[in-house]
Amino acid sequence: MVVLTHARQLRLNPPPSATISSVIYDPTSLSLALMHSDSSFSLYPHISPFSPPPPSTTTTVVSPPSSSATFLRLRTTTDTDVMFIVSSPYLAGTSILLRFYIIRNDNQFARVRVICNQSDLVFDEKRLGVLVKVNHGVSVKLAASINVFAMYSFSDRKVRVFAVKGVGDGDVVKLMRTAVIDCESPVFAVSVSTGFLSLGEEGGVRVFPLRPLVKGRKVSDKPKVQKLKLVNGMVSGIGGSGLYAKTGKFNGSMDRSAKLKPLKLRQNSQECGVRFVPFKSKEFEDYESSKGPLMMSIKAVSIQFLAHNKFLILDSDGELYLLSLSNHASGSESGHEMKKLTLTMKVQNLAVLPDDSAIAGPKTVWLSDGQYTIHAIILSDMDSTAANENETNIEEKIQRSATQVIFTSEKIQEIVPLSANAILLLGQANNIFAYAIS
Fold first, then answer.
1. In this structure, is residue 100 part of a structural domain?
2. Predicted local distance difference test score (pLDDT) of residue 238
3. pLDDT at residue 57 in the model
4. Which of 264, 300, 260 is nearest to 182 (CA)?
5. 24 — phi, psi (to 5°)?
6. Phi and psi (nearest 5°) for 69?
7. Global pTM?
8. What are phi and psi of 433, to 5 degrees?
9. By the 8 A CB rule, do 279 and 301 touch?
10. What's the whole-number mean pLDDT along residues 121-140?
C-alpha cells in the first residue's frame, strides 16, 4: 500500500530572483540547480526539502546565456565529488563554451580549472571554461553519469563523449574527448547511464555500450624510423651496429608509448555492439506491411535509466515503454525488448531515481499528465517476468501497480526525482513542491 506521507512547498533563502523555467536536482550532494527565464542558473548546495530550511544559503549564479546543463559524479579511488556542467553559445554560436563547477569543502560551488590538450578543446583563462570548436546551433543537449558526459549539437549533427578525471586536490580536472558519433538522423533525447549511451530517435532508441566509447582508440605514438646505410658493416656516424635508428635520437631504444584518440562511429554503425531497438506494439505491427509510417513518426523524447539494464522510454505521443537490454555486446537485437506499458493517461512528465546498485527491488515511477495530477507507479524487477510471461500479463501487472494519485494546486510544469520515493514538482506559478510516499 502506497501512502502519501509528506507534501511541502520548498522555501529557498535567498529566493529565486527570476522566473524558474527548469529544475535539476542531484540526490548525491543534495544540490539544486534552477534555470531561469533569462537562461541563467542559480546553484543551491545541500538542499533537503523535508528538513527545516537553513537561515541562509550562499547561492552561486551562472550567468546567461546557457543552453543545457547536467550534474556529473566525479568518482576517484577514495571519494566522489559532484560537478555541475553548463553549455553556452560563444562567438555568435560558432563555438560552445563549457563551464565546470564543483562543490568545495566549504559546501559552496566554485569554478574549476580544466586541463585539455586535444586540438578542438581550449581552456579559456578569462572565462574559466572550455571552448569547443563546434557550431552551437539552435540546440545542445548534455547528459552525464559517473566520470562521463555526452554532448549533442543538433546543428553539428554529432554526439561527443567526454571523460572527466580529477587532478590533484579536486580544484583541477582533466577533460578528454573519447568518442564522436556522426548522426544522420535527428536525436531527440540523450541518456548516459552505467554501461550505456542511449539516443532517442524516430521509431525507437539506439543504444551504444559505453565502455568502448570511453576507452577511445589507442594509436601508436612511435617516432619515425629511418633506414641507415652501412659502411663496412657499421652504421656511419653512430657508435653502434644497428640497422635502424630513430630519427633525431641515437640511443638505440624505441619509444612504444601510445596516445588516445577519439573513437569515430556513425549513428547506424554495427560496430562495438551498437543496436537500434524499435517501438513495438499492436498498432505498429498493423503498419509493418507499409514500412511502419506510424512508428517512424513517433519519437523517443525521454530516456530514464531504471536499474539492471532497464530503461523507461517516453515517446512523443505520451506512451511509456520498458526497454530491457541484454548484457552481451553484439549488434543483434535478440535479447533486447521494448514493451509498451498500458496506462490510462497520456504521459507528459516522467521521473524515476536511477539505481546502479546490484540489488533488485521495486522502483517508484512518477508520471504526470502535465495538468494537475501525478501518478505513483511501483515497478517490480522484470527479469523473470519478461522471460516467462506474455506481454498482456506484463501490462496487467503494471496497470494494477498504479496505487497513488496526487492532485496538485498548480498546473505541472516539471517533475524531477528527489529520492527513491520522493519528487520535486515545479508549478507554473514559480513554486516548487516536494512530495514523498512510503
1. no
2. 40
3. 72
4. 264
5. -125, 135
6. -155, 160
7. 0.83
8. -120, 150
9. no
10. 89
State the Cα–Cα distance between residues 67 and 302, nearest whole angstrom.
18
Please give the grid coordinates belonging to residue 52: 527545516
Distance CA 350, CA 370 (A): 10
11, exposed or middle or buried, with CB in 10 Å at 0-12, 13-18, 19+?
Answer: exposed
Domain contains 380: yes
| Residue 402 lies in domain | 1-29+344-438
Give a yes or no: residue 430 inside a domain: yes
Beta strands 263-266 and 172-182 are: parallel
Q: Which three cell numbers stand for residue 367?
A: 508520471
* 279-285, long-range: CB < 8 A, 24+ apart: 279/203, 279/204, 279/313, 279/315, 279/321, 279/338, 279/340, 280/337, 280/338, 280/339, 280/340, 281/319, 281/340
Question: Kindly report the CA angle at 23 between 112 and 323, in degrees rounded to 5?
Answer: 100
Domain count, the chain: 1
Closest CA to 318 of 343, 293, 292: 343
Residue whose grid cell is 508520471: 367
Is 35 a domain residue? no
Q: Residue 137: left (phi > 0), alpha (psi -120 to 50), or beta?
A: left
